[in-house]
Amino acid sequence: MNIVVLVKQVPDSEAMVQVREGGSAVEVEDKYTLNFFDSLAVEEALRIKEQVGSGKVTVVTLGTQKSVEALRTGVAMGADEAVLLDDPALIGGDEYVTAKALAQAIKNMEYDLILCGREAFDDSSGAVGPLVAEFLGIPHITVAVKIEVSSEQRTVTVEREVEGGKEILKAPLPVLLSAQKGLNEPRVPPITGVMKAMRTEIKRLDLAALDLPATEAGVAGAKQEVLRYHRPPERPPVKIVEGEVPDAVRELVKLLKEEAKVI
Amino acid sequence: MDFRFSEEQEFFRKTIAEIVDKMIVPKAAEIDEKDEFPWELWKEFSKLGYLGLRYPEEYGGMNADKVTTMIFYEEITRGSVGFAQSVIMNMLMGTYFIHRFGTEEMKKRCLIPAIRGEKIATICFTEDQSGSDLAATRTTAVRDGDGWVINGTKMWITNGPICDFCTVLASTDPSKGLKGLNFFLVEKGTPGFSTGQVLNKLGCRGTLTGELIFDNVRVPAENFLGDELGKGVVYVGDILDEVRIMTAAMALGIARAAYDEALEFARKRVAFGNPIGRYQLIRAKFAEMTAEMQAARLLMYHAAWMLDQGIPCRKEAAMAKLYATEVCQKVVDEATRIYGANGFAYEYAPQRHFRDARFVLYGGGTQEVLKDFIGRLIIGKI
Predict the structure, then answer these.
(1) Which residue, A179, A170, A125, A187, is CA-closest to A6?
(2) Which residues of chain B have a CB within 8 Å of the CB of A194?
(3) Which residues of B touch A191 (CB under 8 A)?
């Protein structure tokens, strides 16, 4: 069972994020980490490989040198190989071109299953995974909380959360699945993994290796253009209802109904 | 000149920092409060293999460079000093002499299980009347047929109450002072070897520290750890720099834990209508703390780098420990001030860092002994 895991290096949840004056860009403090949902995907890939007993897990990302860390984290956890889509022309694109480049890379690999996080913590679009599946012409199932692989029947049975319940879907391999919180508990890398990660050679693919024209990559190929970033609105101050309890409760209920309109 | 960690060291730092944040930080307050050895965490953590960091791969280690091991010591201490002390004892002093002088059989019996966390190691220098002054060691080892008989009581032994084996400093010839000192391996279960009082400490709680008693403890000749009698102090000298730099790394780890908490507090705590971090006197504290911690960090990693390069660094290692320890005292103090009255409450973390910081004043040689030592190196014999 060969599994490809799409990973992304994203700002740490503790990193300070500021919108540049004028809204042209976002400035992020230099604290990055492997996207949480992607760590679930890596963990699941390792579990499936262990359960099936053969195959390899390859972590793939598109980005700058900084992204190598996400790949190394994947290898430290137990992935066998790491691939970086590494070309200045690939940078600055949108979900569409990113997925296209990833699909070009995966097309030439042997894979039975592609896993990714349900979305990245930074842009939260959740679009790259499904787009990769579309470019490759394979099915996809998103926000999986349980995955069962049958290597004999070459199918997956996936449980996904839906409003008020769960949905159970079955799909043939190869398929792309995106991981949701609750799927598993990602492992802590052992020192042997860290040693391997530090020594592992990162395979690098540029535009030529991906067989992609420059017009279909990065900024040049993007379908979207970011017009402006906005700071989220400041939260209104907390209102404390004072007074005797019965009156205060009456006042609180009134405010919740009329002002906050939540009940 | 290149002051950056290598890409590998940087990756190691981030990985271990994340592990510490996930596994150790959430348990630090409880470890301190209970003052019991955290067996569950010990098993969970040692399983990951980091205790072998500085040893060769054939023993389950990683053969890491010194800079990398210091990164580890700094990060794990940032998590919990109580836990870090036990871990570092197993990784460094508790196993150093066995790795260097022990038989292969001994390494199988002690070193490898210690690296795996299956056995707890320690080293015994200190006695009730001797610490930095090793020449005052009163524990003796007397030749008896083909073995040695050890008598004495050791005090302040980190991991002592729960150790499975220990390296004991004893005098084989009290008339020779420092030149009569040697190291011996004593394993749990050896007749006459027992644990005594467990100390109730101000800080570093969770690490059990106490007394070890040697009452006519007979060990075979091979348990003498050295290649020549009378060279115990020389061997101490061989590891001294690493131990001092390690203590500096621990001091920085404590300082960073306190600093991080204080920074978060200063950004959130509102007084007079503003987060207190907007006030100049609070900003001044952070400016000073950041600059001094950076200076301590540079001294420490520079000394570790010298160690890796094989450049003599006795003075640099001592200076790193001396300075990082003082910076640590200042940072834990400022952190409690930034917290205001909350810094005085057991409910908040600053008091724990404040108590823990005291340990580095004595561990690895007292500040007074270090200052005298550095001054002597500079001024020379006059």
Answers:
(1) A179
(2) 11-12, 15
(3) 48-50, 52-53, 62
In the stretch 2-41 of chain A, residues with CB closer than 8 A to chain B read 33
Q: Are B154 and B186 in contact (CB under 8 A)?
A: no
Closest partner residue to B19 among A33, A188, A195, by Cβ? A188
Q: Which of B134, B232, B217 is nearest to B181 (CA)?
A: B232
CATH of domain B7-116: 1.10.540.10
At residue A113, what are phi and psi to the nearest 5 degrees? Answer: -150, 140
3-state secondary structure of A93: coil
Residue A91, pLDDT > 90, answer yes
The number of beta carbons lying within 10 Å of the beta carbon of residue A186 is 20
CATH homologous superfamily, domain B121-231:
Butyryl-CoA Dehydrogenase, subunit A, domain 2 (2.40.110.10)
Q: Are strands B209-220 and B193-198 parallel, antiparallel or unpaired?
A: antiparallel
Chain A CB within 8 Å of residue B72 CB: no
Helix (H, G, I), strand (E, B) or coil at B161: helix
In what helix (H) or strand (E) does residue A85 lie, and over which residues does it extend? strand A81-85
Distance CA B43, CA B39 (A): 6
Does pLDDT of A16 surpass 90? no
> CA of B47 to nearest chain A CA: how many angstroms apart?
8
DSSP letter, residue A120: -
Q: Which helix (H) or strand (E) holds B168?
A: strand B165-171
A208 touches chain B (CB under 8 A): no
CA distance A194 to chain B (A): 7
B-chain CB neighbours of A188 within 8 Å are 19, 22-23, 48
Contacting residues of B for A33, CB less than 8 Å apart: 14, 18
This complex has an ipTM of 0.79
- Tens-digit pLDDT profile for residues A93-105: 999 999 999 999 9
Q: Topology of domain A3-221, per CATH?
A: Rossmann fold (3.40.50)
Instruction: Give the tens place of pLDDT for each residue, B46-92.
Output: 999 999 999 999 998 989 999 999 999 999 999 999 999 999 999 99
Report the residue of A12, A84, A188, A192 to disrupt the B interface, i.e. the one with the largest count of B CBs within 10 Å: A188
- Residue A66: what are its φ and ψ, rounded to 5°? -55, -30
A-chain CB neighbours of B62 within 8 Å are 191, 195
Query: Where along chain A do the CATH 3.40.50.620 domains lie?
Result: 3-221
Tokens coding A46: 């390792």
Out of A72, A191, A192, the one facing B11 most closely (by C-beta) is A72
Domain ranges in chain B are: 7-116, 121-231, 233-379
pTM attached to this predicted model: 0.88
CATH code of the region B233-379: 1.20.140.10
A188 to B23: CB separation less than 8 angstroms, yes or no: yes
Q: Given CA atoms B282, B283, B287, B290 in this order, what sign does their dihedral have? A: positive
Q: For chain B, how long is the longest CA-to-CA vector?
A: 79
Q: Which two tokens stand for residue B372?
A: 């005298």
